[in-house]
Amino acid sequence: MKQIIVFDFDGVLADSFDNLYQINMSAGLAMGYHLSKSQYRKAFYGPLNKNLGAIFNLSETELENFIKLKHKIFADFYNADRVKLFPEATSLLESISRQGELWILSTAPEIHIKKILKANQLQNFFTKIIGHSKKQKSYFLEKAVTSPNIDRVFFVTDTVGDLLEASRVPSVVTIAVTWGFHTPKVLANAQPSVTANKFQDVLKFIQSNDK
Protein backbone atom coordinates (compact mmCIF):
# COMPACT_ATOMS: atom_id res chain seq x y z
CA MET A 1 0.00 0.00 0.00
CA LYS A 2 1.36 3.41 -1.00
CA GLN A 3 0.69 6.24 1.40
CA ILE A 4 1.67 9.79 2.25
CA ILE A 5 2.18 10.90 5.85
CA VAL A 6 1.79 14.68 6.11
CA PHE A 7 3.23 16.35 9.22
CA ASP A 8 2.39 19.73 10.61
CA PHE A 9 5.75 21.06 11.80
CA ASP A 10 5.26 23.36 14.78
CA GLY A 11 3.98 21.59 17.87
CA VAL A 12 4.34 18.18 16.20
CA LEU A 13 8.02 17.88 15.30
CA ALA A 14 9.29 21.26 16.56
CA ASP A 15 8.88 22.52 20.12
CA SER A 16 8.29 26.02 18.83
CA PHE A 17 5.22 27.47 20.53
CA ASP A 18 7.21 30.10 22.44
CA ASN A 19 9.17 31.08 19.32
CA LEU A 20 6.01 31.69 17.31
CA TYR A 21 4.28 33.40 20.20
CA GLN A 22 7.17 35.84 20.52
CA ILE A 23 6.90 36.71 16.82
CA ASN A 24 3.17 37.38 16.98
CA MET A 25 3.31 39.13 20.34
CA SER A 26 6.15 41.41 19.18
CA ALA A 27 4.36 42.29 15.95
CA GLY A 28 1.20 43.01 17.92
CA LEU A 29 3.01 45.23 20.40
CA ALA A 30 4.60 47.16 17.53
CA MET A 31 1.06 48.01 16.43
CA GLY A 32 -0.11 48.80 19.94
CA TYR A 33 -1.81 45.50 20.82
CA HIS A 34 -1.15 42.93 23.54
CA LEU A 35 -1.44 39.21 22.79
CA SER A 36 -1.62 36.68 25.62
CA LYS A 37 -0.50 33.07 25.24
CA SER A 38 -4.07 31.95 25.82
CA GLN A 39 -5.31 34.18 23.00
CA TYR A 40 -2.58 32.89 20.73
CA ARG A 41 -3.50 29.25 21.35
CA LYS A 42 -7.17 30.02 20.64
CA ALA A 43 -6.20 31.66 17.35
CA PHE A 44 -5.33 28.16 16.11
CA TYR A 45 -8.99 27.13 16.36
CA GLY A 46 -9.25 28.26 12.74
CA PRO A 47 -7.29 30.36 10.21
CA LEU A 48 -4.49 31.86 12.31
CA ASN A 49 -4.03 35.32 10.83
CA LYS A 50 -7.76 35.85 10.38
CA ASN A 51 -8.33 34.99 14.03
CA LEU A 52 -5.47 37.22 15.20
CA GLY A 53 -6.97 40.05 13.17
CA ALA A 54 -10.27 39.50 14.98
CA ILE A 55 -8.54 39.49 18.38
CA PHE A 56 -6.87 42.83 17.60
CA ASN A 57 -9.93 44.13 15.69
CA LEU A 58 -7.78 44.95 12.66
CA SER A 59 -8.98 46.26 9.33
CA GLU A 60 -7.88 44.39 6.20
CA THR A 61 -5.08 46.87 5.62
CA GLU A 62 -3.94 46.67 9.24
CA LEU A 63 -3.97 42.86 9.07
CA GLU A 64 -1.80 42.95 5.94
CA ASN A 65 0.66 45.25 7.75
CA PHE A 66 0.66 42.93 10.76
CA ILE A 67 1.50 39.94 8.55
CA LYS A 68 4.27 41.89 6.77
CA LEU A 69 5.73 42.89 10.12
CA LYS A 70 5.74 39.26 11.27
CA HIS A 71 7.67 38.22 8.18
CA LYS A 72 10.28 40.93 8.80
CA ILE A 73 11.05 39.69 12.32
CA PHE A 74 10.37 35.98 11.78
CA ALA A 75 14.00 34.89 11.50
CA ASP A 76 14.92 36.75 14.70
CA PHE A 77 12.91 34.27 16.75
CA TYR A 78 12.54 31.29 14.42
CA ASN A 79 15.84 29.85 13.20
CA ALA A 80 18.01 26.75 13.49
CA ASP A 81 19.69 28.05 16.65
CA ARG A 82 16.49 28.89 18.53
CA VAL A 83 13.94 26.31 17.38
CA LYS A 84 14.48 22.86 18.87
CA LEU A 85 12.86 19.64 17.73
CA PHE A 86 11.17 17.38 20.23
CA PRO A 87 13.75 14.75 21.30
CA GLU A 88 11.65 11.88 19.92
CA ALA A 89 11.13 13.48 16.51
CA THR A 90 14.25 12.07 14.86
CA SER A 91 13.60 8.44 15.81
CA LEU A 92 9.95 8.77 14.75
CA LEU A 93 10.90 10.07 11.32
CA GLU A 94 13.49 7.34 10.85
CA SER A 95 10.88 4.67 11.61
CA ILE A 96 7.90 6.22 9.89
CA SER A 97 9.79 6.94 6.67
CA ARG A 98 9.55 3.20 5.99
CA GLN A 99 5.75 3.49 6.00
CA GLY A 100 5.37 5.91 3.12
CA GLU A 101 6.23 9.26 1.56
CA LEU A 102 6.69 12.09 4.09
CA TRP A 103 5.51 15.69 3.63
CA ILE A 104 5.52 18.77 5.84
CA LEU A 105 2.57 21.16 5.68
CA SER A 106 3.00 24.26 7.83
CA THR A 107 2.10 27.93 8.16
CA ALA A 108 5.75 28.77 8.95
CA PRO A 109 7.86 29.93 5.96
CA GLU A 110 9.35 27.04 4.03
CA ILE A 111 12.86 28.53 3.99
CA HIS A 112 13.11 28.50 7.79
CA ILE A 113 11.71 24.98 8.12
CA LYS A 114 14.27 23.70 5.63
CA LYS A 115 17.12 25.32 7.57
CA ILE A 116 15.95 23.74 10.83
CA LEU A 117 15.62 20.32 9.21
CA LYS A 118 19.04 20.65 7.60
CA ALA A 119 20.62 21.60 10.92
CA ASN A 120 19.18 18.39 12.36
CA GLN A 121 20.09 16.32 9.26
CA LEU A 122 16.45 15.48 8.60
CA GLN A 123 15.73 17.24 5.31
CA ASN A 124 16.18 14.10 3.23
CA PHE A 125 13.26 12.35 4.91
CA PHE A 126 10.76 14.64 3.19
CA THR A 127 9.54 14.55 -0.39
CA LYS A 128 7.70 17.87 -0.05
CA ILE A 129 8.00 20.76 2.38
CA ILE A 130 5.12 23.22 2.04
CA GLY A 131 5.38 26.39 4.09
CA HIS A 132 3.39 29.61 4.39
CA SER A 133 0.86 29.93 1.58
CA LYS A 134 -2.27 31.90 0.77
CA LYS A 135 -3.86 28.56 -0.12
CA GLN A 136 -5.63 26.63 2.64
CA LYS A 137 -4.08 23.42 3.94
CA SER A 138 -7.05 21.48 2.57
CA TYR A 139 -5.84 22.41 -0.93
CA PHE A 140 -2.53 20.62 -0.37
CA LEU A 141 -4.18 17.67 1.38
CA GLU A 142 -6.40 17.26 -1.67
CA LYS A 143 -3.26 17.28 -3.81
CA ALA A 144 -1.84 14.49 -1.66
CA VAL A 145 -5.03 12.42 -1.89
CA THR A 146 -5.12 12.74 -5.68
CA SER A 147 -1.42 11.97 -6.17
CA PRO A 148 -0.85 9.08 -8.62
CA ASN A 149 -0.92 5.59 -7.08
CA ILE A 150 -1.50 6.83 -3.51
CA ASP A 151 -3.86 4.67 -1.45
CA ARG A 152 -3.99 6.60 1.83
CA VAL A 153 -3.04 9.98 3.30
CA PHE A 154 -2.43 10.64 6.99
CA PHE A 155 -2.23 14.15 8.49
CA VAL A 156 -0.42 14.48 11.82
CA THR A 157 -1.22 17.75 13.59
CA ASP A 158 -1.73 19.40 16.97
CA THR A 159 -4.39 22.07 16.36
CA VAL A 160 -8.14 22.26 15.90
CA GLY A 161 -7.72 24.57 12.91
CA ASP A 162 -5.72 21.94 11.04
CA LEU A 163 -8.20 19.20 11.91
CA LEU A 164 -11.07 21.30 10.59
CA GLU A 165 -9.12 21.94 7.40
CA ALA A 166 -8.47 18.22 7.00
CA SER A 167 -12.18 17.46 7.50
CA ARG A 168 -12.77 19.19 4.15
CA VAL A 169 -10.92 16.25 2.54
CA PRO A 170 -12.85 13.32 4.07
CA SER A 171 -10.48 10.58 2.90
CA VAL A 172 -7.58 12.03 4.93
CA VAL A 173 -6.90 10.12 8.15
CA THR A 174 -6.15 12.60 10.95
CA ILE A 175 -3.82 11.94 13.87
CA ALA A 176 -4.06 14.57 16.64
CA VAL A 177 -0.99 14.74 18.88
CA THR A 178 -1.37 15.97 22.45
CA TRP A 179 2.12 17.36 23.10
CA GLY A 180 1.63 20.45 20.91
CA PHE A 181 -0.44 23.63 20.95
CA HIS A 182 -3.86 22.20 21.91
CA THR A 183 -4.91 19.93 24.77
CA PRO A 184 -6.58 16.52 24.27
CA LYS A 185 -9.94 17.98 25.35
CA VAL A 186 -9.73 20.80 22.81
CA LEU A 187 -8.57 18.46 20.04
CA ALA A 188 -11.43 16.05 20.71
CA ASN A 189 -13.91 18.76 19.69
CA ALA A 190 -12.60 18.53 16.13
CA GLN A 191 -13.10 14.75 16.02
CA PRO A 192 -9.71 13.46 14.80
CA SER A 193 -9.50 9.91 13.49
CA VAL A 194 -7.26 9.07 16.44
CA THR A 195 -5.37 10.83 19.24
CA ALA A 196 -1.68 10.17 19.93
CA ASN A 197 -0.36 10.84 23.42
CA LYS A 198 3.24 9.94 22.57
CA PHE A 199 5.34 9.74 19.44
CA GLN A 200 5.28 5.96 19.30
CA ASP A 201 1.47 6.07 19.10
CA VAL A 202 1.72 7.78 15.69
CA LEU A 203 3.87 4.99 14.29
CA LYS A 204 1.72 2.24 15.81
CA PHE A 205 -1.48 3.70 14.36
CA ILE A 206 -0.04 4.01 10.86
CA GLN A 207 1.40 0.50 11.03
CA SER A 208 -1.95 -0.90 12.19
CA ASN A 209 -3.63 0.66 9.16
CA ASP A 210 -1.03 -0.54 6.69
CA LYS A 211 -3.13 -3.35 5.18
Name the features.
alpha/beta, 6-stranded parallel β-sheet, single chain, 211 residues, globular
Which helices and strands occur, and which strands form pairs?
Blueprint: E1 3-7, H1 17-30, H2 37-43, H3 48-56, H4 60-77, H5 89-96, E2 101-105, H6 110-119, E3 126-130, H7 137-145, E4 152-157, H8 160-166, E5 173-177, H9 184-188, E6 194-196, H10 199-208
Shape: globular
Structural class: alpha/beta
Radius of gyration: 17 Å
The helix content, as a percent range, equals 40-55%
Average of the residue pLDDT scores = 96
Q: State which percent range the strand residues make up.
A: 5-15%
Largest sheet: 6 strands, parallel
Strand order, sheet with most strands: 3-2-1-4-5-6
What's the β-strand tally? Answer: 6
* Poorly predicted segments: none
Number of helical stretches of at least 4 residues: 10
Distance between the termini: 7 Å
Quick description:
The protein has helices at 17-30, 37-43, 48-56, 60-77, 89-96, 110-119, 137-145, 160-166, 184-188, 199-208; strands spanning 3-7, 101-105, 126-130, 152-157, 173-177, 194-196.
Fold and architecture overview:
The protein has 211 residues and is an alpha/beta fold. The chain has helices at residues 17-30, 37-43, 48-56, 60-77, 89-96, 110-119, 137-145, 160-166, 184-188, 199-208; strands at residues 3-7, 101-105, 126-130, 152-157, 173-177, 194-196. Strand 2, helix 6 and strand 3 form a beta-alpha-beta unit. Helix 1 packs across helix 4 and helix 5 (89-96) runs parallel beside helix 10 (199-208). The longest helix is centred in the N-terminal third of the chain and has 18 residues, at 60-77. 35% of the residues are buried.
